[in-house]
Amino acid sequence: MNNQTDIDIVVRYLEDPENELLKQQLNEWIQQDPGHLDIFLDMKAMWQGDPLPAPSAFDTAGKWEELSTRLDKAAVPAVTAPASTRVIKMNRRYWWAAAAVLVIAGTWTLMGPGGYKTFATAQTQDSLRLPDGSMLYLNANTSVRYARSFGKDNRIVKIDKGEAFFDVKPNETLPFIVNAPEVEVQVLGTAFNVKAANTGVKVFVQSGKVSAAYRGTEKKVILTPDMEASLKLHGSTIDTHVHKKNNNILAWKTRTLTFDEAPLNEVAEALEDFYHVQVHISNPQLADQKLLATFPNMALDEVLDIMRKTLRINITHKNDLVDIY
User: What are the record keywords, sorted (predicted)?
Assistant: First the structure.
């Protein structure tokens, strides 16, 4: 790979993740050794903003010596730790690499500000298993965090932005709480979706029962399966809606859009949310048009082409704008 170091391949990709050549180089490097994937994931987590805490008690000098040896082998300028200080002058790119090596050695833990572990996604989705066994699925452009004591004396997850689906492990003695901007969701064991947008928070329950409330107030609502609550930022009212079984709220997770005689305005909203585009219906006479179709993980243009032929309507798609007329 043009004599690039292993570490440099990862760093170059993190600096320009949309570069197809760098994606290919990273993929080839990961395929060379199963351990490379772990290194990449740890470096990615730190690159997205998780700071390193003070080192725990371990042989710091020895680890720096080990790191220097590994960097030497990778043709990276050697880094040594002076005997009188722990301040290491390193290029920013290789500082991230050094931190990743120490993480792989099991001597550091990644904790965000205030003792939180932070997870963030960019343009892709991801999932993780929480310490209590609950599963968390993150939509693109989502940031969540939980305390280092999670599962011991609390089960609190903070969703700072984006959308996440929670499949919660039952524990009657330790409620599971999700804190979103100005909103608190509490459950004992269930599966539900939380979407934190600029205008407010939406909570949808797939199974079980949850309460959604404005934090610090008595204003709350109890949600059961197929119910959704909308709580506006700086608001005081909670709007609820009962959805049909085949709604598309969780389409981002299932990767399937399903429309059962859905009106065109509802279809437009689902397309906007799923494909992150703006859909405009410029012909008001199309409001009564209804769509019966299922789109399993299909490209937007394929979906639009089927809609065009099925409903016999005109559709144009340019950049992030879709016009139906």
Answer: Membrane, Transmembrane, Transmembrane helix
Half-sphere exposure of 26 (CA within 13 A, CB side): 23
Do 236 and 260 fall within a single domain? no
Question: In 10 A of CB 57, how many CB atoms?
Answer: 6
Question: Is 100 found in the same domain as 137?
Answer: no
The domain in which residue 284 lies consists of 251-324
- Choose one of 56, 76, 104: the last residue of a domain: 104
pLDDT confidence of residue 48:
59
**CB burial class (10 A; 0-12, 13-18, 19+) of residue 176?**
buried
Whether 64 is in a domain gets the answer: yes
258 and 238 both lie in a single domain: no
Q: For the segment 155-180, what is each residue's pLDDT rounded down to a tens digit?
A: 999 999 999 999 999 998 899 999 99
The total number of structural domains that make up the chain: 3
Residues 288, 153: Cα–Cα separation, whole Å: 53
3-state SS, 81-98, equals CCCCCCCCCCCHHHHHHH
Enter the pTM of the model: 0.60
The CATH number given to whatever domain includes residue 147 is 2.60.120.1440
Taking only the tens place, the pLDDT of each residue in 81-95 is 333 333 333 344 444
Instruction: Report d(CA 202, CA 206) in Å as an integer.
Output: 13
- Residues in the chain, overall count: 325
